[in-house]
Design brief:
The chain is elongated. A seven-stranded mixed sheet has the order 3-2-1-4-5-7-6. It has a domain of about 140 residues: Rossmann fold. By secondary structure, the protein is of the alpha/beta class. The longest helix has about 50 residues. The protein is about 45% helix and about 15% strand. It is built from seven helices and seven strands, in the order H-H-H-E-H-E-H-E-E-H-E-E-E-H. GO terms for molecular function: protein-lysine N-methyltransferase activity.
């Protein structure tokens, strides 16, 4: 009886191996599917991160790949004050070429100018708009995402330039062709190569140069006096 009970309760080695063969692959299959799911999640996460980094970095990297690089270097507080000094007793519209985070445009708007900024980096333009709204001058400011070489500055009386030496000769020619004689151009950090400044302020990296275009062109306005002909 005991022998019959043992034989009925115990399985043969062949039966056990078959049972294990059925259970083990099932467990391995579940583990493999889990690993596959984790692998897909990790791949998707890494891919999403790379796409996000590309979206953020592209506007900053792309200008550096251009022939003339115009990097973002924030204007210092002293620079802004020197620019405002060069704008004293001036009126009319103002444009900042390469406006960066908009601090010069906003400072000019607080002094009563209708100020516009042109900047190639969209992230900086959006941030500039936010800063102008935060400082309460958004109605007197505008910021555009644009390449400066594709914009005409002919209707501006005051121009602020924050450039690099490589671009100044070409920009000097462009502004001389487009601006009216009553325009004033203010260059920050780097002067124009051919024009002689009419005013300067600051020193070192905070130096700004102001150029009155009518003097650079030699186009002083003259009043024409008409005298009556004397009777003979």
């Amino acid at each position: 009886l005991s022998q019959v009970s043992e034989n009925s309760l115990c399985r043969s080695p062949g039966a056990m191996s078959q049972a294990l063969a059925k259970e083990i692959p099932q467990e391995e299959g579940q583990g493999g599917s889990r690993r596959s799911s984790w692998g897909l999640l990790v791949t998707a996460g890494v891919g999403g991160t790379l796409v996000a980094l590309y979206a953020v970095a592209t506007p900053f990297v792309t200008p550096a790949l251009r022939k003339v690089c115009l990097p973002f270097v924030p204007a210092t507080a002293a620079q802004i004050q020197n620019v405002l000094k060069m704008l004293e007793n001036r009126s009319g519209s103002l444009v900042d070429i390469g406006s960066g985070d908009g601090r010069i445009v906003i400072a000019a708007a607080k002094k009563g100018f209708h100020a516009v900024g042109y900047e190639l980096n969209p992230w900086l333009v959006w941030y500039s708009r936010y800063r102008a709204w935060r400082d309460g001058v958004h109605q007197n400011t505008k910021f555009y995402i644009s390449d400066l070489w594709k914009v005409s500055f002919s209707h501006y009386r005051n121009v602020v330039v924050f450039g690099v030496p490589q671009m100044m000769p070409q920009l000097e020619k462009k502004l001389e062709e487009e601006l009216e004689c009553n325009a004033r151009i203010i260059a920050c950090r780097f002067p124009f190569p051919c024009w002689i400044p009419d005013h300067t302020a600051g020193e070192g990296i905070d130096t700004v140069w102001a150029y009155d275009l009518k003097r650079s062109r030699g186009c002083e306005t003259k009043n024409l006096e008409i005298t009556p002909e004397s009777e003979s």
